[in-house]
Input
Amino acid sequence: MKLVALSDVAEMLGGVSRTRATEITNRATFPAPVDTVASGRMRIWARADVEAWIREYRPSQRVEET
Output
């Protein structure tokens, strides 16, 4: 399973700021993180889950799958 952190998610969302990526990842529709690190302050997501969310909620945005 490939994992991504907030900075990766921001890049996957088209290079949005970390602040914007945080707003998006806090949405109820966004996948839940698979884990947290750094005493619970850094969330980690499954890359496939983020890719699937982008395909569903941002269909005009191209997703480069790995």
